[in-house]
Amino acid sequence: MDKKLCIFICNSLIVEATHIIKELNFHDVVLKTYPTNCASNSLDVEFAIKNAHINQDEFSKILFFVSSCFKKKKTDLIVNNKIDFYFLDQCFELLTSKEIVQHFINQGCYVVTNGWLVNYKEHINQWGFDENTSKVFFGESIKKILFLDTGLKWDYKPSICKLSDYMGLPWEIFPIGLTYYRNFLIKIISEWRIERQNKSINEKLALVSRENADYLLIFFLLNKLVNYTDERLIIKEIFNLLNMLFSPQNIVYYQFENNKNSEKQLFNNNYEVLNEEEDILYKINYLNEDLGIFKIYEVKFPEYIEKYKKMGAIISQISSMAIANARKFEIVENQKQLLEENSKYLLEANQSKDKFFSIIAHDLRSPFNSFLGLTKIMSDDIQSLTMMQLQNIAIRMERSATNLFDLLENLLQWARMQQGILPFIQVVYTLKPELYKIIELMYDIAKSKEIEITSDIEIDVCIKVDINMFNAVIRNLISNAIKFTNKNGKIHISTQITDTHFVEIKISDNGIGMEAEVLNKLFKIDGNIGRKGTNGEPSTGLGLLLCKDFVEKNGGTIRAESKEDIGSSFYVSLPIRSKD
Predict the structure, then answer these.
(1) Which residues contact 530 (CB under 8 A, 6 or more apart)?
(2) Sign of the torsion angle spanned by Cα atoms 134, 140, 142, 143
(3) Which of 127, 313, 327, 566 is buried most deeply by CB count within 10 Å?
(4) In contact, 540 and 523? CB cutoff 8 Å
(5) Do 278 and 253 contact (CB within 8 A), yes or no?
(6) Four-CA torsion 119, 124, 127, 130, nearest 10 degrees
(7) Greatest CA separation found in the chain?
(8) CB-facing half-sphere around the CA of 243: CA atoms within 13 A
(9) CA-CA distance, 95 to 87, in Å (whole number)?
(10) In this structure, is the dihedral angle defined by the CA atoms of residues 160, 161, 163 and 164, taken in order, positive or negative?
(11) DSSP H helical segments within 449-515, as ranges?
(12) Which one-letter DSSP state was computed for residue 69?
């Protein structure tokens, strides 16, 4: 059904307009009115439409004839594609020419119409004057009341006489008829009809052009699918194609895996599909395997459904090939990724194995050779050695044995960690006393190199850790600090809260430090550091690998800062836990 034109006219001019529309039998025009209020410019469009109880969807255009009663300037309007405005300097310009209206006003006339007179009592109430005040007020600015007689048959004299008495002014009749008003409305309505007709013709031409272009569009867009390897991207492109072709309320895609429905996707997530009966259905099938189904609901042009169904063979065939290829590509990519992960795992395993054999071949052999050399000296020359010499050999043997034991201990723990057989039991501990226990154990070792250990551990928070791993990490880091700090050096241990969830333990020294190249190799299995301590102590870097694994297993992080000949700082960050 064709939509109508709705015209809003001031209450003072609606009587004549209604007569004209009825006289001309304009069934496609609906007249609505709004209250006369020339002085207050209070007309609100949305309020007027709401109170007129009209459904905007019934009309192709809603036109307002407005003047000083409208509360917005023309330049301030944001007009939608349905509501439009016809601005007049004076509403009486609907009845006669602008020049005549202005002439009457310049002559001091108070112009009234049929509609205005019908509601003259309401206008008097709006003025708020008593009769004496009214006479004074209007007598100063107005010479007479002028009634524009449009020829409608009704007894206006009683109303105009009472108005004259109230205003204290004479009245006069000026016959204008309805010719001007009639021609004005015919012109406006004809323009609307021509506009509507042109729009209808354009829509029909667009449909014809669209019908010819649809197949070209399908081939063009489906051709793009050949280059896609992501099934979701292909579905998105098909959604866009179907939306352009059919302009439906919604498109639903049911993805199939092994001929069974596995996933549902909606093109319009804000539209709920209530009707189970779809307008169009396209099956996606490749080599007798169901890959999915597209269901299209409430297409905009249902008259073309049969034509759209014929297009389905092309859409389904190309879409099926594209989706099938994407799934094969995904399988290949997954296998490729799995191979890459396995290769990475094997590479790391080889690096671990190389590190293991390197330690056995070199780092374990050195302390054993030293130990064996000292025992040979004692075996061959013990009778010629003095007590002082024997004591020195014993001290060196003890140092070699200690280094060897520490190295074997780290090696054993690292091997257990790699095999996943190292026990892991987390318990909540108070940080401060646990740190002091470890520091106290390291005092004697530091004292042997005349190194001072200081601490600033005021933070008393709880951490949930495997205590053996925690002790191994802190002990290893302090031991390294002692190893790479010169005689009379200093080591400082402190703590701080980095945010509401983590506490950071800092172990810093003023030792020999590291250059950037060495620093970057820390915590890496393939990093060959192999530096010796300030007293020639051996170092494999294995301890730091253990520290990293232990810290991360307990939910923390470890990092290092260092400058050559200035010193190093190691930071262990662990999550704070409550005692409960």
Answers:
(1) 539, 540, 541
(2) positive
(3) 327
(4) no
(5) no
(6) -170
(7) 154
(8) 14
(9) 15
(10) positive
(11) 467-483
(12) T
d(CA 115, CA 376): 132
The architecture that CATH gives domain 423-575 is 2-Layer Sandwich (3.30)
> Does the pTM of the predicted model rise above 0.70?
no
- Check residue 285 and give left, alpha or beta (phi > 0: left; psi -120 to 50: alpha): beta
**All residues at 6 or more sequence positions from 489 whose CB lies less than 8 Å from its CB, including other chains:** 449, 451, 452, 509, 510, 511
Report angle CA 273, 274, 275 to the nearest 5 degrees: 100
CATH 3.40.50 assigned to domain 1-94+178-204? The reply is yes
Cα 533 to the chain's mean position, in Å? 54
Q: Spell out the residues 6+ positions from residue 459 whose beta carbon is closer than 8 angstroms to its own.
A: 431, 432, 495, 496, 497, 503
Question: Which residues, 6 or more positions from 354, have their beta carbon under 8 angstroms from its beta carbon?
Answer: 526
Alpha-carbon distance of 129 to 136, in angstroms, equals 10
Six token digits for residue 534: 């300030």
Closest among 426, 452, 358, 440 to 575, alpha carbons compared: 426
Using CA atoms, how far residue 230 sits from 220, 236, 265, 328, 330, in Å, is: 19, 10, 15, 10, 8
Can you read off the two tokens belonging to residue 259? 């001929």
Look up residue 457 and give its two tokens.
Answer: 């551990």
Q: Identify the H or E element spanning 21.
A: helix 14-24
**Residues 294, 299, 305, 310, CA torsion sign:** negative
- Cα separation, 455 vs 417, whole angstroms: 31
Q: State the Cα–Cα distance between residues 8 and 174, nearest whole angstrom.
A: 26
- 17's CB contacts (< 8 A; 6+ apart) are 7, 9, 31, 94, 181, 185
Domain ranges of the chain: 1-94+178-204, 97-177, 423-575
- The β-bridge partners of 145 are 110, 171
The type of residue at 450 is E
